[in-house]
Structure to design on (88 residues):
C-alpha cells in the first residue's frame, strides 16, 4: 500500500507501507526523511473520508503535528511542521 504524506514546509512524498508495519510508521519514516531523525509526528486525527456509492470507505485523510525532540538538556518540543496523510 502507498500513502501520500503532505508537509507544509517540505515537498510531498509517497511512502510505501511494508507488510509488517502500520501506515503511521511509514508516515513517520517519510517525515524523518524530510526533517531529519529528530522529527516525530504527534496526534494523528482523522479529518475526513470518502465513500463510494455502496458506502465503503475508499480514502481516509489524517492530520498530525510534526515536532522536534528536545536537546539533551531540556527544552520543549518545538513544532516544526504540519503533516497530512492520504490513504487510498
Amino acid at each position: 500500500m502507498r500513502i501520500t504524506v503532505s508537509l507544509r514546509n517540505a515537498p510531498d512524498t509517497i511512502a510505501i507501507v511494508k507488510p509488517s508495519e502500520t501506515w503511521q510508521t511509514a508516515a513517520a519514516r517519510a517525515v524523518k526523511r524530510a526533517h531529519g531523525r529528530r522529527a516525530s509526528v504527534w496526534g494523528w486525527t482523522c479529518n475526513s473520508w470518502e465513500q463510494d456509492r455502496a458506502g465503503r470507505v475508499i480514502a481516509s485523510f489524517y492530520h498530525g503535528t510534526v515536532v522536534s525532540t528536545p536537546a539533551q538538556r531540556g527544552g520543549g518540543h518545538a513544532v516544526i511542521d504540519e503533516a497530512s496523510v492520504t490513504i487510498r
Remarks:
- The two ends are 8 Å apart (CA to CA).
- The first helix runs from residue 23 to 35.
- The chain has a mean pLDDT of 90.
